Amino acid sequence: MIQSHTLDFLKELVENNNRDWFQANKEKYDQARENMIAFTADIIGKLHKIDPTVSADLDAKKCVMRIYRDIRFSKNKIPYKNNFGVSLPTNGSKLGGVEYYLHIQPGKSFIAGGYWMPEAAHLKAIRQEIDYNANDLKKIIDAPHFVKLFGEFRKQDQLKTVPRDYSAENENIDLLKLKSFIVSHPLKDKELMSVSAADHIVEVCSHLYPLTVFLCNALV
């Protein structure tokens, strides 16, 4: 589970996002990161049983993303992220890109999954899969429980124009115009600090799993 000191550290970081404070509180950061690594390891073991394309051998340390921001080309010079991000990639396709993502931020945490902003070749492959097997995708994203957990799948970034090789009259044009194929579910601080936090997150992921299968199949 996420310890209260981890959320407390992130709250304090928001108010003191500078190198001097961070170095003075490095021990708090190290404790928070170790909590994140342990929590991630717990999730990996449980998630592998739900989605075998998430390797049980994933290194939890490598899954927890850096808290340091790359500010070289950014106007925002704040040096640290105000959250912990965890990337849990699948290995079910040769091309990759499909993953689960855990975002820990006080009051704004969530679990997500799918494929965010695929590169051109991947996007083309996913659109082709939608064109050929749209009914399979719609059975997943229009299922009442899926909508309850994740909201309306179609309400994410779409092209303003019709994608090349497809007609505006295509009955699935709303899906074919999507730029990303992701969903997310909010997580309350209280849920994260529960002893059943990892089980709860994996349970949500189990309902996301059919979407990852569809996307991975498109990239094989």
TrEMBL record:
Pfam families: DUF2461. It comes from the Bacteria. Signal peptide: none annotated. This is DUF2461 domain-containing protein.
